[in-house]
Amino acid sequence: MLLRAFSDVVGRVHVLTETDVVASYAVDWTGRYRGETAAVLRPGSVEEVAAVVALCREHGVPVVPQGGNTGMVGGGVPLHGELVVSLRRLSRVGPVDAAAGQLTAGAGVTLADVQAAAREAGWAYGVDLGGRDSATIGGNVATNAGGLRVLRYGDTRAQLLGVQAVLGTGDVVEHLGGLVKDNTGYALHSLLCGSEGTLGLVTAVRLRLVPPAPARVAAILGMKDAASAVAAAQELRRTLPTLSAAELMLRAGVELVCSVSGAPPPLAAPSDAYLLVEASGTADPTPELSAAVASLAGVEDAAVAEDPQRIAALFRYREGHTEAVNSLGAPPHKLDVTLPNSVLAEMVERLPSVVEAVAPGASVWLFGHVGDGNVHVNVTGVEPDDERVDDAVFRAVAEVGGSISAEHGVGTAKRRWLELNRSAAELRAFASIKHALDPDGIMNPHVLVGSG
Ligand code: FAD
Ligand code: 2HG
Ligand code: ZN
Question: For the segment 314-327, what is each residue's pLDDT rounded down to a tens digit?
Protein backbone atom coordinates (compact mmCIF):
# COMPACT_ATOMS: atom_id res chain seq x y z
CA MET A 1 0.00 0.00 0.00
CA LEU A 2 2.68 2.46 1.09
CA LEU A 3 4.95 1.23 -1.71
CA ARG A 4 2.21 2.16 -4.17
CA ALA A 5 2.19 5.68 -2.72
CA PHE A 6 5.98 5.87 -3.16
CA SER A 7 5.56 4.61 -6.74
CA ASP A 8 3.13 7.44 -7.41
CA VAL A 9 5.83 9.87 -6.31
CA VAL A 10 9.01 8.50 -7.91
CA GLY A 11 7.61 6.17 -10.57
CA ARG A 12 7.19 2.38 -10.27
CA VAL A 13 10.53 1.72 -11.91
CA HIS A 14 12.31 3.71 -9.19
CA VAL A 15 10.90 1.70 -6.30
CA LEU A 16 13.27 -1.27 -6.18
CA THR A 17 12.00 -4.34 -4.36
CA GLU A 18 13.55 -7.37 -6.10
CA THR A 19 15.64 -9.25 -3.53
CA ASP A 20 18.82 -9.45 -5.61
CA VAL A 21 18.74 -5.80 -6.60
CA VAL A 22 17.94 -4.53 -3.13
CA ALA A 23 20.66 -6.70 -1.57
CA SER A 24 23.47 -4.60 -3.03
CA TYR A 25 22.05 -1.49 -1.31
CA ALA A 26 21.84 -3.32 2.02
CA VAL A 27 25.51 -4.22 2.47
CA ASP A 28 28.33 -1.73 2.92
CA TRP A 29 31.53 -1.51 0.85
CA THR A 30 33.61 -3.44 3.37
CA GLY A 31 31.06 -6.23 3.83
CA ARG A 32 31.12 -5.74 7.61
CA TYR A 33 27.63 -4.19 7.79
CA ARG A 34 24.73 -6.08 6.25
CA GLY A 35 21.06 -5.24 6.70
CA GLU A 36 17.78 -5.62 4.88
CA THR A 37 15.11 -3.37 3.48
CA ALA A 38 11.68 -3.66 1.91
CA ALA A 39 12.54 -1.16 -0.82
CA VAL A 40 15.03 1.27 -2.29
CA LEU A 41 13.47 4.55 -3.42
CA ARG A 42 15.20 6.51 -6.17
CA PRO A 43 13.72 10.02 -6.37
CA GLY A 44 14.76 12.11 -9.37
CA SER A 45 14.21 15.67 -8.13
CA VAL A 46 14.11 17.69 -4.93
CA GLU A 47 10.31 17.77 -5.21
CA GLU A 48 10.22 13.98 -5.28
CA VAL A 49 12.59 13.79 -2.30
CA ALA A 50 10.32 16.18 -0.39
CA ALA A 51 7.25 14.11 -1.26
CA VAL A 52 9.03 10.93 -0.12
CA VAL A 53 9.93 12.56 3.21
CA ALA A 54 6.34 13.79 3.63
CA LEU A 55 5.05 10.22 3.18
CA CYS A 56 7.67 8.85 5.57
CA ARG A 57 6.68 11.42 8.20
CA GLU A 58 3.01 10.69 7.77
CA HIS A 59 3.54 6.95 8.23
CA GLY A 60 6.47 7.09 10.67
CA VAL A 61 8.77 5.24 8.29
CA PRO A 62 12.51 5.59 8.98
CA VAL A 63 14.92 6.05 6.07
CA VAL A 64 18.62 5.62 5.39
CA PRO A 65 19.96 8.02 2.75
CA GLN A 66 22.49 6.49 0.37
CA GLY A 67 24.83 7.89 -2.26
CA GLY A 68 27.63 5.77 -3.71
CA ASN A 69 27.63 3.35 -0.74
CA THR A 70 31.39 3.69 -0.29
CA GLY A 71 31.08 4.76 3.35
CA MET A 72 33.22 2.97 5.92
CA VAL A 73 31.18 3.18 9.13
CA GLY A 74 27.94 1.39 8.30
CA GLY A 75 25.96 4.63 8.11
CA GLY A 76 24.45 4.22 4.65
CA VAL A 77 22.90 0.75 4.91
CA PRO A 78 19.56 -0.30 6.44
CA LEU A 79 20.72 -2.23 9.49
CA HIS A 80 17.31 -1.96 11.18
CA GLY A 81 15.04 -2.55 8.20
CA GLU A 82 14.78 1.13 7.19
CA LEU A 83 13.84 2.12 3.66
CA VAL A 84 16.81 3.21 1.57
CA VAL A 85 16.54 6.52 -0.27
CA SER A 86 19.17 6.57 -2.99
CA LEU A 87 20.09 10.07 -4.15
CA ARG A 88 22.11 8.89 -7.13
CA ARG A 89 19.59 10.08 -9.71
CA LEU A 90 20.21 13.70 -8.65
CA SER A 91 23.16 13.72 -11.02
CA ARG A 92 22.96 17.10 -12.71
CA VAL A 93 26.08 19.29 -12.73
CA GLY A 94 25.53 23.01 -12.97
CA PRO A 95 25.25 25.87 -13.01
CA VAL A 96 29.04 26.34 -13.17
CA ASP A 97 30.28 29.88 -12.52
CA ALA A 98 33.77 29.98 -14.01
CA ALA A 99 34.27 33.63 -13.07
CA ALA A 100 33.53 33.01 -9.40
CA GLY A 101 35.23 29.61 -9.37
CA GLN A 102 32.16 27.78 -8.09
CA LEU A 103 29.77 25.11 -9.18
CA THR A 104 26.47 23.60 -8.13
CA ALA A 105 26.02 19.84 -8.30
CA GLY A 106 23.19 17.47 -7.54
CA ALA A 107 23.82 15.21 -4.54
CA GLY A 108 24.18 12.16 -6.79
CA VAL A 109 27.03 13.50 -8.92
CA THR A 110 30.16 11.45 -8.33
CA LEU A 111 33.24 13.13 -6.92
CA ALA A 112 35.09 12.27 -10.17
CA ASP A 113 32.41 14.10 -12.18
CA VAL A 114 32.65 17.15 -9.91
CA GLN A 115 36.42 17.14 -10.45
CA ALA A 116 35.94 16.84 -14.22
CA ALA A 117 33.41 19.69 -14.31
CA ALA A 118 35.81 21.87 -12.32
CA ARG A 119 38.60 21.07 -14.79
CA GLU A 120 36.41 21.90 -17.78
CA ALA A 121 35.71 25.29 -16.22
CA GLY A 122 39.46 25.95 -15.88
CA TRP A 123 39.48 25.26 -12.13
CA ALA A 124 40.10 22.29 -9.83
CA TYR A 125 38.15 20.80 -6.92
CA GLY A 126 40.12 20.61 -3.67
CA VAL A 127 38.96 17.22 -2.37
CA ASP A 128 40.19 13.90 -3.74
CA LEU A 129 39.92 10.34 -2.45
CA GLY A 130 40.26 6.78 -3.64
CA GLY A 131 36.50 6.19 -3.88
CA ARG A 132 36.12 9.11 -6.33
CA ASP A 133 34.43 7.14 -9.15
CA SER A 134 31.58 5.88 -6.94
CA ALA A 135 31.36 8.25 -3.96
CA THR A 136 28.79 11.01 -4.51
CA ILE A 137 29.18 14.64 -3.60
CA GLY A 138 26.09 14.32 -1.38
CA GLY A 139 27.81 11.48 0.48
CA ASN A 140 31.02 13.52 0.70
CA VAL A 141 29.07 16.36 2.28
CA ALA A 142 27.12 14.05 4.59
CA THR A 143 30.38 12.55 5.90
CA ASN A 144 32.51 15.70 5.57
CA ALA A 145 34.96 13.59 3.57
CA GLY A 146 38.67 14.35 3.84
CA GLY A 147 41.03 12.43 1.60
CA LEU A 148 44.41 13.06 0.07
CA ARG A 149 44.64 16.87 -0.11
CA VAL A 150 43.23 18.11 3.18
CA LEU A 151 46.60 19.52 4.20
CA ARG A 152 46.46 21.84 1.18
CA TYR A 153 42.76 22.66 0.67
CA GLY A 154 40.90 21.49 3.78
CA ASP A 155 38.05 18.98 4.13
CA THR A 156 34.71 18.97 2.30
CA ARG A 157 33.22 21.48 4.73
CA ALA A 158 35.91 23.96 3.68
CA GLN A 159 34.74 23.71 0.05
CA LEU A 160 31.04 24.03 0.83
CA LEU A 161 29.27 27.37 0.29
CA GLY A 162 25.67 26.20 0.52
CA VAL A 163 23.26 23.32 0.16
CA GLN A 164 19.76 22.45 -0.88
CA ALA A 165 18.26 19.83 1.42
CA VAL A 166 15.01 18.29 2.57
CA LEU A 167 15.08 18.35 6.36
CA GLY A 168 13.46 15.78 8.59
CA THR A 169 10.76 18.39 9.23
CA GLY A 170 9.83 18.09 5.56
CA ASP A 171 11.04 21.64 4.84
CA VAL A 172 13.14 22.26 1.76
CA VAL A 173 16.01 24.60 2.59
CA GLU A 174 18.07 26.10 -0.20
CA HIS A 175 21.02 28.48 -0.03
CA LEU A 176 22.95 28.02 -3.26
CA GLY A 177 23.77 31.65 -4.14
CA GLY A 178 27.48 31.11 -3.56
CA LEU A 179 28.27 34.33 -1.70
CA VAL A 180 31.68 33.84 -0.14
CA LYS A 181 30.85 36.28 2.65
CA ASP A 182 27.35 35.84 4.01
CA ASN A 183 26.87 36.26 7.75
CA THR A 184 23.10 35.99 7.83
CA GLY A 185 22.67 33.50 10.62
CA TYR A 186 23.22 29.82 11.24
CA ALA A 187 25.36 28.06 8.63
CA LEU A 188 22.95 25.22 7.87
CA HIS A 189 25.27 23.89 5.18
CA SER A 190 28.07 23.48 7.73
CA LEU A 191 25.68 21.79 10.13
CA LEU A 192 24.43 19.36 7.50
CA CYS A 193 28.03 18.66 6.48
CA GLY A 194 29.11 15.72 8.60
CA SER A 195 25.56 15.03 9.84
CA GLU A 196 25.53 11.63 8.07
CA GLY A 197 21.92 11.83 6.92
CA THR A 198 20.58 12.26 10.46
CA LEU A 199 19.06 15.72 9.92
CA GLY A 200 17.90 15.57 6.33
CA LEU A 201 18.62 14.58 2.77
CA VAL A 202 21.11 16.73 0.90
CA THR A 203 19.85 17.21 -2.65
CA ALA A 204 22.33 19.74 -4.12
CA VAL A 205 25.51 21.51 -3.09
CA ARG A 206 27.34 24.72 -3.99
CA LEU A 207 31.12 24.25 -4.00
CA ARG A 208 34.06 26.59 -4.16
CA LEU A 209 36.78 25.57 -6.61
CA VAL A 210 40.53 26.07 -6.31
CA PRO A 211 43.10 27.29 -8.87
CA PRO A 212 44.54 24.39 -10.84
CA ALA A 213 48.07 23.27 -9.93
CA PRO A 214 49.09 21.52 -13.15
CA ALA A 215 52.83 21.21 -12.43
CA ARG A 216 53.07 18.14 -10.20
CA VAL A 217 55.74 15.86 -8.83
CA ALA A 218 55.34 12.90 -6.51
CA ALA A 219 57.87 10.79 -4.68
CA ILE A 220 57.80 7.65 -2.59
CA LEU A 221 60.43 7.95 0.11
CA GLY A 222 61.68 4.77 1.73
CA MET A 223 62.08 5.68 5.42
CA LYS A 224 64.15 4.13 8.18
CA ASP A 225 61.06 3.67 10.37
CA ALA A 226 57.54 4.98 10.96
CA ALA A 227 58.76 7.66 13.36
CA SER A 228 61.07 9.09 10.66
CA ALA A 229 58.18 9.09 8.19
CA VAL A 230 55.97 11.00 10.63
CA ALA A 231 58.75 13.49 11.42
CA ALA A 232 59.44 13.97 7.70
CA ALA A 233 55.77 14.72 6.97
CA GLN A 234 55.70 17.25 9.79
CA GLU A 235 58.89 18.90 8.51
CA LEU A 236 57.70 19.06 4.89
CA ARG A 237 54.51 20.87 5.92
CA ARG A 238 56.77 23.70 7.08
CA THR A 239 59.53 23.62 4.47
CA LEU A 240 57.60 22.84 1.29
CA PRO A 241 54.83 25.37 0.58
CA THR A 242 53.76 23.46 -2.55
CA LEU A 243 53.19 20.23 -0.57
CA SER A 244 49.80 18.80 -1.58
CA ALA A 245 49.86 15.28 -0.09
CA ALA A 246 51.82 13.41 2.59
CA GLU A 247 50.75 9.80 3.03
CA LEU A 248 52.14 7.11 5.30
CA MET A 249 52.53 3.46 4.35
CA LEU A 250 54.30 0.62 6.13
CA ARG A 251 56.25 -2.28 4.69
CA ALA A 252 53.59 -4.96 5.23
CA GLY A 253 50.87 -2.85 3.60
CA VAL A 254 52.97 -2.04 0.54
CA GLU A 255 53.93 -5.71 0.16
CA LEU A 256 50.26 -6.67 0.40
CA VAL A 257 49.28 -4.12 -2.27
CA CYS A 258 52.06 -5.43 -4.55
CA SER A 259 51.01 -9.04 -4.09
CA VAL A 260 47.30 -8.29 -4.70
CA SER A 261 47.78 -5.88 -7.62
CA GLY A 262 50.86 -7.43 -9.20
CA ALA A 263 52.70 -4.09 -9.09
CA PRO A 264 56.49 -4.23 -8.69
CA PRO A 265 57.96 -3.03 -5.38
CA PRO A 266 58.22 0.78 -5.36
CA LEU A 267 61.94 0.80 -4.49
CA ALA A 268 64.89 -1.52 -5.16
CA ALA A 269 65.01 -2.64 -1.51
CA PRO A 270 62.13 -2.62 0.97
CA SER A 271 61.94 -0.03 3.75
CA ASP A 272 60.07 -0.41 7.03
CA ALA A 273 58.04 2.71 6.29
CA TYR A 274 57.23 4.85 3.27
CA LEU A 275 56.15 8.44 2.84
CA LEU A 276 54.32 9.31 -0.36
CA VAL A 277 54.64 13.02 -1.00
CA GLU A 278 53.26 15.23 -3.72
CA ALA A 279 54.09 18.85 -4.50
CA SER A 280 52.12 20.89 -7.00
CA GLY A 281 51.82 24.41 -8.31
CA THR A 282 52.05 26.44 -11.48
CA ALA A 283 55.84 26.17 -11.83
CA ASP A 284 57.74 22.86 -11.73
CA PRO A 285 57.97 22.01 -8.00
CA THR A 286 60.64 19.31 -8.51
CA PRO A 287 63.69 21.37 -7.46
CA GLU A 288 61.87 22.58 -4.35
CA LEU A 289 60.76 19.04 -3.45
CA SER A 290 64.27 17.64 -3.99
CA ALA A 291 65.83 20.31 -1.78
CA ALA A 292 63.28 19.76 0.97
CA VAL A 293 63.70 15.97 0.84
CA ALA A 294 67.50 16.28 0.89
CA SER A 295 67.35 17.87 4.33
CA LEU A 296 65.14 15.14 5.85
CA ALA A 297 66.52 12.56 8.25
CA GLY A 298 65.90 8.85 7.78
CA VAL A 299 65.40 8.72 3.98
CA GLU A 300 66.82 5.44 2.65
CA ASP A 301 65.78 5.69 -0.99
CA ALA A 302 63.34 7.54 -3.24
CA ALA A 303 61.35 7.02 -6.44
CA VAL A 304 60.29 10.24 -8.14
CA ALA A 305 57.54 10.66 -10.75
CA GLU A 306 56.82 13.72 -12.86
CA ASP A 307 54.43 12.55 -15.57
CA PRO A 308 50.76 11.94 -14.72
CA GLN A 309 50.85 8.16 -15.39
CA ARG A 310 53.88 7.60 -13.18
CA ILE A 311 52.40 9.83 -10.47
CA ALA A 312 49.16 7.82 -10.60
CA ALA A 313 51.20 4.61 -10.36
CA LEU A 314 52.90 5.87 -7.17
CA PHE A 315 49.54 6.85 -5.67
CA ARG A 316 48.19 3.35 -6.40
CA TYR A 317 50.57 1.93 -3.77
CA ARG A 318 48.71 4.05 -1.21
CA GLU A 319 45.17 4.02 -2.63
CA GLY A 320 45.41 0.26 -3.21
CA HIS A 321 45.54 -0.44 0.53
CA THR A 322 41.75 -0.39 1.02
CA GLU A 323 41.03 -2.93 -1.69
CA ALA A 324 44.04 -5.08 -0.81
CA VAL A 325 43.01 -5.33 2.85
CA ASN A 326 39.45 -6.16 1.80
CA SER A 327 40.71 -9.00 -0.38
CA LEU A 328 42.02 -10.86 2.68
CA GLY A 329 38.71 -12.55 3.45
CA ALA A 330 36.67 -11.61 6.50
CA PRO A 331 35.77 -7.89 6.53
CA PRO A 332 38.35 -5.67 8.25
CA HIS A 333 37.73 -3.50 11.27
CA LYS A 334 38.36 0.05 10.04
CA LEU A 335 39.46 2.44 12.72
CA ASP A 336 40.01 5.88 11.22
CA VAL A 337 41.62 8.04 13.88
CA THR A 338 43.41 11.37 14.23
CA LEU A 339 46.19 11.91 16.72
CA PRO A 340 47.76 15.08 18.05
CA ASN A 341 51.06 15.78 16.29
CA SER A 342 53.00 15.57 19.52
CA VAL A 343 52.16 11.86 20.02
CA LEU A 344 51.63 10.79 16.41
CA ALA A 345 54.94 8.96 15.93
CA GLU A 346 54.75 7.27 19.31
CA MET A 347 51.17 6.10 18.69
CA VAL A 348 51.91 4.76 15.20
CA GLU A 349 54.57 2.59 16.86
CA ARG A 350 52.31 1.65 19.80
CA LEU A 351 48.95 0.88 18.16
CA PRO A 352 49.89 -2.62 16.93
CA SER A 353 50.64 -3.64 20.52
CA VAL A 354 47.31 -2.17 21.68
CA VAL A 355 45.62 -4.50 19.17
CA GLU A 356 47.85 -7.46 20.02
CA ALA A 357 46.94 -7.16 23.71
CA VAL A 358 43.23 -7.80 23.03
CA ALA A 359 43.43 -9.82 19.80
CA PRO A 360 46.61 -11.89 19.74
CA GLY A 361 47.43 -12.98 16.21
CA ALA A 362 45.30 -10.33 14.48
CA SER A 363 46.96 -8.39 11.64
CA VAL A 364 47.24 -4.62 11.82
CA TRP A 365 47.52 -2.53 8.66
CA LEU A 366 48.47 1.09 9.33
CA PHE A 367 48.43 3.77 6.68
CA GLY A 368 46.90 7.16 6.15
CA HIS A 369 46.97 10.88 5.70
CA VAL A 370 49.85 11.45 8.07
CA GLY A 371 50.15 15.11 7.10
CA ASP A 372 46.81 15.61 8.87
CA GLY A 373 47.64 13.33 11.81
CA ASN A 374 45.10 10.86 10.36
CA VAL A 375 45.96 7.18 10.60
CA HIS A 376 43.81 4.38 9.19
CA VAL A 377 44.13 1.41 11.53
CA ASN A 378 42.78 -1.64 9.70
CA VAL A 379 42.59 -4.88 11.63
CA THR A 380 42.00 -8.27 10.03
CA GLY A 381 41.68 -11.69 11.60
CA VAL A 382 39.01 -10.56 14.06
CA GLU A 383 35.32 -11.50 13.76
CA PRO A 384 33.22 -8.60 12.38
CA ASP A 385 31.10 -8.29 15.54
CA ASP A 386 33.95 -8.70 18.04
CA GLU A 387 34.41 -5.09 19.16
CA ARG A 388 37.26 -5.55 21.64
CA VAL A 389 39.82 -4.25 19.16
CA ASP A 390 37.69 -1.21 18.32
CA ASP A 391 37.26 -0.47 22.01
CA ALA A 392 40.95 -0.79 22.85
CA VAL A 393 42.12 1.38 19.95
CA PHE A 394 39.50 4.11 20.44
CA ARG A 395 40.25 4.32 24.17
CA ALA A 396 44.00 4.51 23.56
CA VAL A 397 43.50 7.24 20.95
CA ALA A 398 41.06 9.30 23.03
CA GLU A 399 43.32 9.04 26.09
CA VAL A 400 46.05 10.98 24.28
CA GLY A 401 43.66 13.60 22.90
CA GLY A 402 42.92 12.00 19.53
CA SER A 403 39.64 11.56 17.66
CA ILE A 404 37.89 8.24 17.04
CA SER A 405 36.79 9.49 13.62
CA ALA A 406 39.07 11.60 11.49
CA GLU A 407 37.15 11.62 8.22
CA HIS A 408 34.78 8.64 7.83
CA GLY A 409 32.17 9.73 10.35
CA VAL A 410 30.58 7.91 13.26
CA GLY A 411 27.88 5.91 11.48
CA THR A 412 26.69 2.92 13.45
CA ALA A 413 30.23 1.58 13.84
CA LYS A 414 31.46 4.19 16.33
CA ARG A 415 28.28 5.42 17.97
CA ARG A 416 29.02 3.54 21.15
CA TRP A 417 32.27 5.42 21.65
CA LEU A 418 31.18 8.97 20.79
CA GLU A 419 31.31 9.97 24.45
CA LEU A 420 35.07 9.43 24.40
CA ASN A 421 35.32 12.58 22.29
CA ARG A 422 32.16 14.53 23.11
CA SER A 423 31.03 15.85 26.50
CA ALA A 424 27.56 15.28 27.93
CA ALA A 425 26.74 18.94 27.19
CA GLU A 426 27.81 18.53 23.57
CA LEU A 427 25.75 15.37 23.21
CA ARG A 428 22.72 17.17 24.67
CA ALA A 429 23.18 19.93 22.10
CA PHE A 430 23.41 17.27 19.36
CA ALA A 431 20.15 15.72 20.61
CA SER A 432 18.39 19.10 20.62
CA ILE A 433 19.49 19.81 17.05
CA LYS A 434 18.43 16.34 15.98
CA HIS A 435 15.01 16.77 17.57
CA ALA A 436 14.50 20.22 16.02
CA LEU A 437 15.33 19.16 12.47
CA ASP A 438 14.05 15.57 12.61
CA PRO A 439 11.16 15.70 15.10
CA ASP A 440 9.84 12.25 14.13
CA GLY A 441 13.25 10.62 14.37
CA ILE A 442 13.03 9.08 10.90
CA MET A 443 16.32 10.32 9.42
CA ASN A 444 18.96 7.63 9.76
CA PRO A 445 17.76 6.94 13.31
CA HIS A 446 20.52 4.52 14.30
CA VAL A 447 23.43 6.63 13.15
CA LEU A 448 25.62 9.15 15.02
CA VAL A 449 23.28 10.57 17.68
CA GLY A 450 20.28 8.31 17.25
CA SER A 451 16.72 9.47 17.81
CA GLY A 452 16.26 8.33 21.38
P1 FAD B 1 27.40 6.63 1.25
O2 FAD B 1 28.38 5.59 1.61
O3 FAD B 1 26.30 6.24 0.38
O4 FAD B 1 26.82 7.27 2.59
C5 FAD B 1 27.69 7.72 3.60
C6 FAD B 1 26.86 8.44 4.69
O7 FAD B 1 26.28 9.62 4.17
C8 FAD B 1 25.69 7.61 5.20
O9 FAD B 1 25.47 7.92 6.55
C10 FAD B 1 24.52 8.09 4.36
O11 FAD B 1 23.28 7.91 5.02
C12 FAD B 1 24.84 9.56 4.18
N13 FAD B 1 24.41 10.14 2.90
C14 FAD B 1 24.80 9.79 1.66
N15 FAD B 1 24.27 10.62 0.75
C16 FAD B 1 23.51 11.51 1.44
C17 FAD B 1 22.70 12.62 1.06
N18 FAD B 1 22.59 13.00 -0.21
N19 FAD B 1 22.07 13.30 2.01
C20 FAD B 1 22.18 12.94 3.32
N21 FAD B 1 22.93 11.92 3.73
C22 FAD B 1 23.59 11.21 2.80
N23 FAD B 1 36.65 8.88 2.85
C24 FAD B 1 37.42 9.92 3.21
O25 FAD B 1 36.97 10.82 3.94
N26 FAD B 1 38.72 10.02 2.76
C27 FAD B 1 39.28 9.10 1.94
O28 FAD B 1 40.44 9.20 1.59
C29 FAD B 1 38.45 8.00 1.52
N30 FAD B 1 38.93 7.08 0.67
C31 FAD B 1 38.15 6.03 0.29
C32 FAD B 1 38.67 5.07 -0.58
C33 FAD B 1 37.91 3.99 -0.98
C34 FAD B 1 38.49 3.00 -1.95
C35 FAD B 1 36.58 3.86 -0.49
C36 FAD B 1 35.73 2.71 -0.91
C37 FAD B 1 36.07 4.79 0.40
C38 FAD B 1 36.84 5.87 0.80
N39 FAD B 1 36.35 6.85 1.69
C40 FAD B 1 37.13 7.92 2.04
C41 FAD B 1 35.02 6.70 2.30
C42 FAD B 1 33.87 7.23 1.43
O43 FAD B 1 34.24 7.29 0.10
C44 FAD B 1 33.41 8.58 1.88
O45 FAD B 1 32.88 8.47 3.18
C46 FAD B 1 32.35 9.22 0.98
O47 FAD B 1 32.17 10.56 1.37
C48 FAD B 1 31.02 8.49 0.98
O49 FAD B 1 30.24 8.92 -0.13
P50 FAD B 1 29.05 8.00 -0.66
O51 FAD B 1 28.33 8.76 -1.70
O52 FAD B 1 29.56 6.68 -1.06
O53 FAD B 1 28.15 7.90 0.64
C1 2HG C 1 41.76 6.00 2.45
O2 2HG C 1 42.38 6.96 2.90
C3 2HG C 1 40.33 5.82 2.86
O4 2HG C 1 42.26 5.23 1.62
C5 2HG C 1 40.00 4.40 3.29
O6 2HG C 1 39.97 6.74 3.82
C7 2HG C 1 40.75 4.00 4.51
O8 2HG C 1 40.54 1.70 3.99
C9 2HG C 1 40.62 2.53 4.89
O10 2HG C 1 40.64 2.25 6.08
ZN1 ZN D 1 41.46 8.18 4.25
Answer: 999 999 999 999 99
- pLDDT tens digits, 146-176: 999 999 999 999 999 999 999 999 999 999 9
* Per-residue confidence (pLDDT) for residue 1, from 0 to 100: 72
Helices (H) and strands (E) in the chain, counts: 15, 16
Question: For residue 181, how far is its CA from the centre of ligand 1 (angstroms)?
Answer: 28
CA dist list (Å): 206 to 96, 139, 365: 9, 14, 36
Residue 136 near ligand 1, beta carbon < 6 Å: yes
* pLDDT computed for residue 127 by the predictor: 98
Do 224 and 318 have their domain in common? yes
Decide: 275 and 240 in contact? Cβ < 8 Å.
Answer: no
CATH number of domain containing 337:
3.30.70.2740
- CA of 389 from ligand 2 middle (Å) equals 18
CA of 58 to the centre of ligand 2 (A): 39
Is 315 contained in some domain?
yes
**How many domains would you assign to the chain?**
4
Last residue of a domain, one of 54, 86, 118: 86
* Residues forming beta bridges with residue 278, ordered by sequence position: 218, 245
Among 293, 220, 229, which Cα is nearest to 257's? 220
For 404, the domain range is 333-410
- 353 shares a domain with 265: no
The residues of the chain scoring below 70 in pLDDT are: 451-452
What pLDDT score was predicted for residue 330?
Answer: 87
Atom of ligand 2 nearest to the CA of 335: 10
The number of the ligand 1 atom at minimal distance from the alpha carbon of 196 is 9
Considering the domain architecture, whether residues 79 and 121 belong to the same structural domain is answered as no
Whether residues 387 and 342 share a domain: the answer is yes
Question: Tell me, what's the pLDDT at 263?
Answer: 98
CB of 74 within 6 A of ligand 1: the answer is no
Q: Is residue 446 part of a domain?
A: no
**Ligand 1 atom showing the smallest separation from residue 406 Cα:** 25
CA of 322, closest atom in ligand 2: 8
Cβ atoms of 160 and 150 closer than 8 Å: no
